[in-house]
Amino acid sequence: MAAPFDEHDPYLWLEEVEGERALAWVEQRNAESQARLADAPGFAALRDDLQAILEADDRIPFVVKRGEHFYNFWQDRDHPRGLWRRTTLEEYRKARPEWEVLIDLDALNAEEGENWVWHDAHCLRPESPDAPWRHCLVSLSRGGADADVTREFDLVEKRWVEAGFYRPEAKGGLGWIDRDTVYVQTDFGEGSMTRSGYPRIVKQWRRGTPMADAEAVFEAEPDDMAVGAAHDSTPGFERDFVSRARAFYDNELYLRQADGSLTRIEVPNSAHKQVHREWLMIELREPWEVAGTTHPAGALLIADFDAFMGGERELRVLFTPTERTSLSDVTWTRRYLILNVLDDVKHRLYVLTPSEGQWQPEPLAGVPTLGSVSVSAVDDEESDEVFVIVSDYLTPTTLLHGRVGEGLETLKQAPALFDAEGLEVTQHFATSRDGTPIPYFQVAKRDLEPSGEHPTLLYGYGGFEVPLLPGYSPGVGRAWLSQGGVYVVANIRGGGEYGPRWHQAALREKRHKAFEDFAAVAEDLIERGVTSARRLGIQGGSNGGLLVGNMLTRYPQLLGAVVCQVPLLDMRRYHLLLAGASWMAEYGDPESDDWEFLRDVSPYHNLDPEADYPPMLLMTSTRDDRVHPGHARKMMARMSEQGHRVLYYENIEGGHGGAADNRQRAHMQALAFTFLGQTLAGAE
Q1: Is the predicted pLDDT of residue 683 greater than 80, yes or no?
Q2: Does 684 have pLDDT greater than 50?
Q3: Is 542 in the active site?
Q4: For residue 36, which phi and psi values (nearest 5 degrees)?
Q5: Which pLDDT does position 368 carry in this prediction?
Q6: Residue-level pLDDT at 391
Q7: In whole angstroms, how large is the CA radius of gyration of the chain?
Q8: What span, in angstroms and rounded, lies between the C-alpha atoms of 406 and 386?
């Protein structure tokens, strides 16, 4: 049986996020780190350079199309909290488009005495194609937390709607049904939130009535993760759906009938489900037997939606994974389906055209074969236009635009923000403890001398089926590569680089596999003469913070420095802190026998006062309401108590992203790179 749950923890008081004693402790720790890092020679110049990169006027302003306008959210030095603005495609093609500002968040903050951070805007498609887009639901967060407020904005009048839809601060959201009706899932009062801290009740709310009087649509169980509802406004295919997330990988999807009744879509709960026009698309996370045929995890299936709901089970296979390939993403346009396939963590895009039951794949023309590629529909209800974003570690991001079947043109090209001359990207494979090949990317000088003396930064994540893909990072380029450092990204198990099997190989009691993979990459870098243990730094955030925390306690002999950001570290209490209960499908339940394996991967519980740990920098945010700052606080306190070399910095704002604006992002990046430079250069 699991150990008693009331074991003594002397630092529980640090879980009081805004407790007076806890914040005084944070202030003191911040002052220590500031004195050590922010007052170091070169820090101010690096911070200013990183902020200039983040706020460069010629970076690409990515857009979303609504009607005749293209919308963008933009932050720069003069507008640190940002501008929500729009322009036309003709204007957007210009090097310096003219923008129409809709919301100036800095001005709004000054007017209202708030610290709003932009989340998103959900806008209602007009009933007539000739009518203007008008009604938007804008979500704003105080300080960058996940919890936010929703307010209605008029795109024609360019103002907030008086007595419009308004949702008070909570986790949840609003979604349009029509101009006078929305779905609302939020905190309705006692008992309305799940154990994970998300809404468990979704309602239909009519304009002009109190939110408390909204009509209940669905109510989940307290131990479920969350609920939601959405209206599909596609002309001719108008439908409403309700989703019930029982756990992170356990989701039921229902079709809501005209009378309000719900009909479950009978596919595995673990599968990703998507309805587009007449099609039901099913991406499997586990094998599924249908009509005598077993389809493997990672396969993509498609069926006629109405026929499927009527009981037919005629499924067509659109993609089947191999040992080296997985499905990264799917994108619908008006008439086509685009598959984004990863082949040894390299992208391949294919266009499928439905024709008499056939879906023959053809490569998407005009897409580079190197680097990371993502594709999005410009408007999947009206056209076959797409945006394609192409990037790699050394090549600035390019935005392409065009119609499927007609080729692509370069619409925007980001500038080079660091000198990549003489650098190259190579892919390597390390062998993990159980013999599994683990791919990783290395960015370094061409013909790097195998001296074992190159300062190297190894980055990883390894969780929630999230792949780490090549992308241009000017901050890494300026602060690390241009200083002679080597940058490495490890594609370890737990991530999604090879689909569900890669993720599930490090799930729950197998979590240690992710750490073994990361250690194998570190050992391979040392064996290849790229670096040595005293020159090797590692970095990770959130689940990646759990990764590097375990690397500290398990493999300190391989490491010279550790940067641990917005981390999970106390796996005994993680499920009791903020959204932690929603991750039990990933990690396990500490109040069951799962604690037997969870204790083994809980860095907070495995710290050894006799161990010789490398220096560590812990970073978090007071306003992170996803991963509790108590994880990092308590780790810092216990490491300090034991006499280990550790620094701590907690940003007062920022949410789970760690920062609320570019000034804060630049400051925190500069702290991390200054720490790495000091420790890996032998200053410790």
Answers
A1: no
A2: no
A3: yes
A4: -75, -40
A5: 75
A6: 94
A7: 25
A8: 11
Is-contact 514 462, C-beta < 8 A? yes
Q: Residue 7 above 80 pLDDT?
A: no
Give the amino acid at 137: L
Catalytic one of 135, 272, 644, 656: 656
78: helix, strand or coil: coil
Q: Please tell me the predicted confidence (pLDDT) of residue 681.
A: 80
With CA atoms as reference, report the closest residue to 414 among 120, 56, 46, 88.
Answer: 56
- As a whole number, mean pLDDT of residues 120-142 equals 95
Residue 580 has pLDDT above 60, yes or no: yes
Residue 435 has pLDDT above 70, yes or no: yes
Residues 6+ apart with CB under 8 A from 426: 441, 442, 444
Query: Which residue's entry shows tokens 């050394």?
Result: 394
How many CA atoms does the CB half-sphere of 18 hold within 13 Å?
5
Whether 656 is catalytic is yes
Q: How confident is the model at residue 635 (pLDDT cuts 50, 70, 90)?
A: very high
* Counts for the chain of helices (H) and strands (E), in that order: 14, 39
Active-site entry in 139, 372, 432, 542 = 542
For residue 2, is pLDDT > 90? no
Identify whether the C-beta of residue 386 lies closer than 8 Å to the C-beta of residue 331.
yes
Backbone angles phi, psi at 299, to 5 degrees: -80, 155
User: Could you tell me the end-to-end alpha-carbon distance of the chain, in angstroms, rounded to an integer?
Assistant: 43
CA of residue 505 relative to chain centroid, distance: 21
Going through 450-547 in order, the beta strands assigned E by DSSP cover: 456-459, 486-490, 536-541
230 three-class SS: strand
Question: Percentages helix, strand, coil for the chain, rounded to the nearest 5?
Answer: 25, 35, 40
Q: Any idea which residue has 């710290």 for tokens? A: 607
Three-state DSSP class for 178? strand
